[in-house]
Amino acid sequence: MPFGQSKIVRTAVATSLAAAAAISALSVTTTAQAVGTSSVGGDISRDEIIARAQNWVDQAVPYSQTSWHSDSNGSYRQDCSGLVSMAWHLGSSRVTSTLDDVSTPLGSLDDLRPGDMIDNITTHVVLFTGWTDGSHTTANIIEEPKPGLTARRNTYSRSYLLNNGYKPYRYDRTIDSVPLPPKPAVAPWRAQLLVNGGGDVFHTTRLSDGNWTAFGNVESQAGDIGGVQSIADAGIDGNTHVLAVGGDGGLYHAVRHSDGSWDRFANVGSEAGTLTNISKISAVSIGGDLHVVAVADGKVFHTARLANGTWMRFADISGQAGAIGTVTSASAANVNGQLQVVAVSGGRVSHTIRDVSGAWSAWGDVYGAAGDIGSAQDVAIAGTGGDMQIIVVTGNGQQYHAARYASGSWQQFNALAPVIGSFTANRVSVATVDGELQAAFITNDDRIMHTIRDGSGSWDPAAAVNLSGVSGNHYAVSITGTAG
Predict the structure, then answer these.
(1) Domains, the chain, ranges and CATH?
(2) What confidence tier does 456 reach under pLDDT thresholds 50, 70, 90?
(3) Which interval of the chain is the signal sequence (predicted)?
(4) Of 102, 122, 223, 236, which sits with the fewest C-beta atoms within 10 Å of its C-beta?
(5) 240: which residues sit within 8 A by CB, 6+ positions away?
């Protein structure tokens, strides 16, 4: 939460907020069990700091700058700085610009330890819980994000933190926790790649050593749906959810489980509704829900398979986001727990966001924000940390990358050829796998090229995927990540 700069102003703001808490703020009381043994303003272990913050995540405490959440762990304002104040067991809810009064700046982000905070004193603060990797490219955090969302675990990229004025701090009363037994090793996430060819759909997995498994025919495992057209996949935990448009024009769904077994394809039309002339599909997971975006009859439709296995009905996004003309391509991504969608119409790319209430924002002009790179042929997006990464393939086969930062500002488009190598492409798919952006392209000479952008923003040279066992020409590709 953004508050003033000077210590005098900061103290005045903190005092007024404390008074507001006592006089007029809405206070929500729950019966959550007290966490830990610390006292207000006393020494507190790192384990207890994380446990107290997790308590708000478990209770799904909603963000509010005017409400206080009260339970056996105390009463604290329900915003970003209130969460950190609660986690540290402070005597009151401080603000982003006064939390540094009870903490010490660290030399660099690399000095962070669980229970420390990462603070931009004018905008937002989060609680650090660890790094996703040894190279410290992506931070795991707990936060109260913004109105309309609840306390949650999230990840922020190192580049986003450095580029947006965040600094690391350690609470002055933090004590090291008693070492815990080592946790079981977490299986790394792996890329799952789908390619169509000869009317069939084929699947491969990228192993931790960078090699790909042999392609397998999905329909031989999940059932023949006759002349597969568009395809998409999305990972939920260790399972890969596969969407495909069959020869009858219907949308089918199957699941590849972590042990390699497959559920059979099932037509989702009876639950989600039947679309006609589906030309492109995209899928992404948000929590346990599978969100699907489809281009049909030149319009963009959205549905979701909820964690309980039921489907929402398809709805035309233009009913809320507005009309943008005939759509030829679209892509969806999970960015900070929100569904973001881009679409190509008339060679230009537009962007919209679906908030947690299900409402869509008006379409925005991506070219107006990130630069006009010429007529777009295909587009794909993925979320990394708090940012949305976007790759556009233009009509002349060139590929460009840009990003929409969590702040809403845009990085300008840059050509990829100088960093991944030169080739002409007609299709693209992207996904976040273990904090890295992975991209797959179909080239005009019918190859599948794969590349990775790491957490520092560096790109690997694109390399051709071995297509042995994949028959026919290729006109659809999809990549996702799954655990294990």
Answers:
(1) 7-175 (3.90.1720), 189-483 (2.120.10.80)
(2) confident
(3) 1-34
(4) 122
(5) 192, 203, 233, 234, 255, 256, 480, 482
